[in-house]
Amino acid sequence: MIRVILIGYMGAGKTTVGKALAQELGVPFYDLDWYITNRMRKTIAQIFEERGEEGFRQIERNMLHEVAEFEDVVISCGGGTPCFFDNIDYMNQQATVVYLKAEPEVLYKHLAMSKNDRPLLRGKSQEELITFITEQLEKRSPYYTKAAYTLDVSLMDDYSKIKISVDKLRKLLNI
Fold it and tell me: Model pTM greater than 0.85?
């Protein structure tokens, strides 16, 4: 049975690498945020607005417990998912957890293309964004580094390098 959960900061490539890995392995791929959106029939932003972060995090935890029970699956989680409740410990019990790690400047480049789509990033200058990412990484690092494996994805800046990252991940996990 294959059950892989990818964690890391937003913009690290969890969904991109997760989809590619799942396709190569011939197993389903689930993005936890998409799963929540489909199940709740609301956007993440709507859930945050209606229930606040605490309400969203509770829903996220419940949905994580659902998808982490699936067999033969690759799952990507939101950047904050491992940092709440006992989520990271639960993930480690249920699956092989991989932290996709990238430097703040690399994450900035990935996020700069879509920063208007991400409420936490709207209206920030380049310097403010890099500072914000750096501070968030420092806070989240104790959770991220509890993953069984870490894969540096700093060089994943075009589609040919996604394949390289997936190959490295398969080698790392021996799958």
Answer: yes
